[in-house]
Amino acid sequence: MLTLTIISIITLVISCIVMILSTLLAKKTIMDREKNSPYECGFDPKGSARLPFSLRFFLIAVIFLIFDVEITLLLPIASTLTLTNVFSWFSTSLMFLLILLVGLYYEWYQGALNWS
């Protein structure tokens, strides 16, 4: 128990020393309004919050979520190939991919209609 306490204290001291040194030796940059303000999809964060939202940002976020969920659900499918019947594995995977592709096409088609 004493060894664990000593190692914890040494780790805490070393990390504090590194943080203090990095703060003292860090390159100071010129602060301006643009660098200090967060980027919020092209909106001015200090302006009105009631401006209309661009549909392009929303569609990009939806497509990103679709592909993110798709990858999360497709990775375990590859590892179950050896554990299941090949026909049932293939049909399930194909059906899942077709549903995702139809959803992607629908989002793309709706986005193309709204952008024009």
From TrEMBL:
It catalyses: a ubiquinone + NADH + 5 H(+)(in) = a ubiquinol + NAD(+) + 4 H(+)(out). Keywords: Electron transport, Membrane, Mitochondrion, NAD, Respiratory chain, Translocase, Transmembrane, Transmembrane helix, Transport, Ubiquinone. The chain crosses the membrane at residues 6-26, 55-75, 87-106. GO terms for molecular function: NADH dehydrogenase (ubiquinone) activity. It is a multi-pass membrane protein. It holds the Pfam family Oxidored_q4. It comes from the Eukaryota. Gene3D superfamilies: NADH:ubiquinone/plastoquinone oxidoreductase, chain 3 (1.20.58.1610). GO terms for cellular component: mitochondrial membrane; NADH dehydrogenase complex. It is found in: Membrane; Mitochondrion membrane. Its EC number is 7.1.1.2. Belongs to the complex I subunit 3 family. PANTHER family: NADH-UBIQUINONE OXIDOREDUCTASE CHAIN 3. Core subunit of the mitochondrial membrane respiratory chain NADH dehydrogenase (Complex I) which catalyzes electron transfer from NADH through the respiratory chain, using ubiquinone as an electron acceptor. Essential for the catalytic activity of complex I. This is NADH-ubiquinone oxidoreductase chain 3. It comes from Dotilla wichmanni. The gene is ND3.
